[in-house]
Amino acid sequence: MPEGPSVRKFHHLVSPFVGQQVVKTGGSSKKLNPASFQSLWLLDNQVHGKKLFLRFDPDEELGSLGNNSLPEPLQEGEKKEEAEDQKQALGPSSREINRSSQSLECVVPSGDNGLECLRGDTPAEGAERWLQVSFGLFGSIWMNEFSRAKKANKRGDWRDPIPRLVLYFGGGGFLAFYNCQMAWSPSPVVIPASDILSEKFHRARALEALSQEQPVCYTLLDQRYFSGLGNIIKNEALYRAGIHPLSLGSLLSPPHLEALVDHVVEFSADWLRDKFQGKQQHTQVYQKEQCPVGHQVMKEAFGPPGGFQRLTWWCPQCQPRLPPDEQEQGRLS
């Protein structure tokens, strides 16, 4: 699943088209009629966690053109695509944290609760036309070129992927959307405190969430506190911090929790920088058989009972699971 850094890169690809009119459309989407974008103007482009929001209007409104810089993030906990991550993150004390942090949170409009939004194939009458783009596991956006087949399919055919939506703009370029879930939604609400790539990321609130009495690998995927964080960042940050994925946050020392948040932010920022520089992503444990030191890496799906299980990679030697009494001693020290 594309995580925060990848979605920021997609935002960067879309930004040059803000202020341009759609002059031609195409694509295979059945949920959204590609022809409905004909003659609309792209007026804004915002990224919030793992989602991209594009504002379209029938008239050019140069006075209200939106953000072309990297935008601040939206609270993602209420959205459908993050629901499974949310299930993983709900611990026994999460309600208390939620109440104590109300000043930093907001609830997105009821029409944007995920299920309703994903049914929206046409924008509401009189409302701003915001297209919510969710990338699922393999979604992507291509600018001025189409994706090509990298290998033959199961039938042996070398067929190029078919974009779900193609938008051609008056300036001569085009955008192609692949494997994306798209639907009209209300205007997104910007809350920067949870975005791991935002300068306004609220570390204290993230640390409070991590200190819950539940495995830290669940909490890291909670988009209310770590918007944009996905499975790759989770695995890499835990390895770099030397923390076992199933360690209870309530038993980890403050320095350990601080180090974990540091690695979340640093790895995410490095990943984003590498994307803009065209460099290959460098992981140390994710989908690896050995860690950088040469130890055997373990792989298992972790998640709460009855909740969504996410594949997790860790090194049992570099990330030992300490007995509760040793963890408690570390907490007190």
From TrEMBL:
Residues 64-101 are annotated as: Disordered. Signal peptide: none annotated. Keywords: Acetylation, DNA damage, DNA repair, DNA-binding, Glycosidase, Hydrolase, Lyase, Metal-binding, Multifunctional enzyme, Nucleus, Phosphoprotein, Zinc, Zinc-finger. Residues 76-87 have a biased composition (Basic and acidic residues). The keyword Oxidoreductase does not apply. InterPro entries: FPG_cat, H2TH_FPG, Ribosomal_uS13-like_H2TH, Znf_DNA_glyclase/AP_lyase. Its main location: nucleus. SMART domains: H2TH (SM01232). GO terms for cellular component: cytoplasm; mitotic spindle; nucleoplasm. It is an enzyme of class 4 (lyase). One of its GO terms (biological process) is base-excision repair. Residues 2-184 form the Formamidopyrimidine-DNA glycosylase catalytic domain. It is found in: Nucleus. GO terms for molecular function: class I DNA-(apurinic or apyrimidinic site) endonuclease activity; damaged DNA binding; DNA N-glycosylase activity; microtubule binding; zinc ion binding. Gene3D superfamilies: 1.10.8.50. Binds EP300. This is Endonuclease 8-like 2.
